[in-house]
Design goal:
By secondary structure, the chain is mainly α. The protein is built from 15 helices and no strands. It folds into two domains: 191 residues, no CATH class; 200 residues, no CATH class. Helix content is 84%, strand content 0%. About 3% of the residues have low confidence.
Length: 402
């Protein structure tokens, strides 16, 4: 079933590329950069959706004393709160990201409500071990976005029209998720005491999402519109590594309460690294061809950047495994380190390395590898400490009594 989920998320990843191809051509580099920047802002606000998936799955798969929950009520409240904040900030967002209308930001805020509840539905399916059904929900989410992008490409819609179509797609996905989880939604409590878990997990997942998205916001601000559009398309190669390997990080969440979490993490990291090597090899054959296929001839000059972004994506994907494992075990040490890395990245790019897209990628790559290697080192040291403790117990048990 894990392999099936991986295939489904790989297909969803491919469909995400199709969305990029459908939108990058009619919008052009300038408008596509604005669309990507606003979408990145939306991803940051949608962090609780991923947290609800992890928390609900952990509640359903473990022996949490608070008991299982669907968390629908807090998800709706947070979604409506994010919508209100985004609507209030919409004129400023339109100015910062050079958008044609503030309505684009308002529509994006509306998308956050169905995204939050969809996160709960995904958590229910993951926690129940219904990986086949979870695969269907991921594919449905991707397919509705492809349909929305196709309509926008056919109508030559602007950025505002694109976000209107994506809002409809999100609502359809949420409706399908509710139908898939209808039995559990009727049986599970809609709310529970989640404050502590949400704060810890939100902080960790927020750190990961910020790590993988702050580069786009900085690129849009410091680079030219044309460069930021090229960077936006090239960076999708990095994000593809995260999307394509996220099934590995998700599968380990329920298993962090098992007897061999260290072995699970090391195997997961090996799978991610192997996928990364294959992805790099495929793109390295002809980076210019790949990025031209994705966005058209206007983006051909960014082929070398796409190849560099694949390496960045591998580092992000490895960091994803470690950070998701922390959410699965309800801890937050590596998340705190990730926030520190993000601060350093922002300062480095804002103060020094922002003259070209390549500089931005190198700074972000260095930060991602720091997080990934720190996660690996922490797990190895923990495993050694556990082994020493086990040996001490054996020695003590074998020692003659005084």
């Amino acid at each position: 079933m894990g392999a099936l989920l991986g295939v489904a998320m790989g297909m969803a990843n491919a469909l995400g590329y199709l969305v990029v191809m459908l939108l990058s051509r009619p919008l052009g580099p300038g408008e596509f950069g604005g669309y990507t920047a606003l979408s990145t802002y939306g991803v940051l606000l949608a962090i609780p959706a991923g947290v609800f998936q992890v928390v609900v799955a952990r509640r359903l798969s473990g022996d949490d004393p608070e008991g299982p929950t669907s968390a629908i009520r807090p998800a709706l409240l947070i979604g409506l709160g994010c919508f209100a904040v985004t609507a209030a900030l919409s004129p400023a967002l339109a100015h910062w990201f050079h958008l044609p209308s503030f309505w684009a930001a308002v529509l994006l805020g509306g998308m956050l409500v169905p995204m939050m509840v969809t996160g709960c539905f995904q958590g229910i399916l993951l926690g129940r071990g219904r990986l086949r059904t979870l695969s269907l929900l991921y594919l449905a989410n991707a397919l509705t976005r492809v349909v929305a992008a196709s309509v926008c490409a056919f109508l030559s819609a602007d950025v505002t029209g694109v976000f209107a179509a994506m809002l409809v797609a999100g609502a359809v996905t949420a409706g399908y998720g509710a139908w898939l989880c209808r039995v559990d939604l009727a049986a599970l409590p809609r709310t529970a005491r989640l404050a502590g878990e949400l704060i810890r997990s939100n902080s960790t997942l927020a750190a990961y999402v910020a790590l993988t998205n702050v580069d786009m916001l900085l690129a849009r601000h410091f680079l030219t519109p044309h460069e930021s559009g090229g960077y936006a398309l090239a960076s999708t190669f990095a994000r593809a590594m995260c999307w394509g390997t996220q099934f590995v990080a998700l599968i380990i969440v329920p298993r962090m309460q098992g007897s061999r979490p260290t072995r699970t993490l090391l195997r997961a990291s090996g799978v991610v690294a192997a996928i990364g090597v294959v992805g790099f090899g495929i793109v390295a054959i002809s980076p210019q061809t790949w990025i031209t296929v994705a966005g058209g001839p206007d983006y051909e000059q960014f082929g070398h950047l796409a190849l560099l972004c694949v390496v960045l994506g591998v580092a992000w994907a490895l960091a994803q495994v470690w950070l998701f494992s922390e959410m699965g075990s309800d801890t937050g040490v590596l998340g705190a380190l990730t926030w520190a890395v993000i601060v350093v990245e922002i300062l480095a790019i804002a103060l020094v390395w922002h003259d070209s897209p390549t500089q931005v990628v190198w700074v972000c790559m260095a930060g991602a590898f720091v997080v990934a290697l720190s996660g690996l080192l922490r797990v190895v040291l923990r495993h050694q400490a556990t082994a020493i403790a086990d040996e001490s117990v054996i020695v003590a048990a074998d020692s003659p009594r005084a």
